[in-house]
């Protein structure tokens, strides 16, 4: 890598909110918060223009002669021809393929792009687009509006977007919408792993997986999407809450601003901290529970604060060890179905 390229990367990292804040422990950068909020406001305003959206996600690095590129292009064409809006991340690879298919059939082709120093520019088949500086605001927009989600093979970013949607659906924060995985050869090993390992921790995950659709062709994917049209129900992150001039759009944005400010205030002062994550579905005699307790105890003995999701299972084990050994024990919890999911071993907590 060229010297000037390295220097630019280092400078961009210093300017990036998520990179430098933990060096000082001060998360209360007013202008950064305003920038985040502007992305939410502009993002939701942008989405209010759209209708019958299908979000297509997948690798940015698959070439045009890839089988999956051609399937995504064909699916985009089916969506465009039948009045659906095709939403992608606006970049190359699978994103370009889906946008291209919709564009070629004179359909609605939308890109929600990310501003990166050396990668991903908007592809030429996007008719409407907006760009984001922060990955997390972009991901909110990519998942919020969709009436269906289609996942093609991809890397860590695709997996992140996949499990984000899955988790929201399982928690009841998002409607049970069609979730379609294209490519049995790629996805089946992951599904086998989840069934063998994850579902054994908590069998509720199996019912979640039963709602996923594994397909190999654009026609199969479109049949599932088109068969589900008009069957969405209300839920906290429902697409319909952000459409057609809904009166609560602005108030939702104010609530996001409030949680951002309170969250950053809560985190301010944390520098030497370690976040421990894991399932809430293990019992006290589980080897994973015991291991989390021992790890947390060792960290506390070496001067680290412990941060968890504040709920049961692994989080409880880590928080319990921190509290019992005189350390700082933080929980960043969540209210689900009116219930606050927090354990009793927290020296400080916040609920979202």
TrEMBL record:
It comes from the Bacteria. One of its GO terms (cellular component) is cytosol. GO terms for molecular function: hydrolase activity. One of its GO terms (biological process) is cytokinin biosynthetic process. Pfam families: LDcluster4, Lysine_decarbox. NCBIfam families: Rossman fold protein, TIGR00730 family (TIGR00730). This is TIGR00730 family Rossman fold protein. It comes from Candidatus Magasanikbacteria bacterium CG10_big_fil_rev_8_21_14_0_10_38_6.
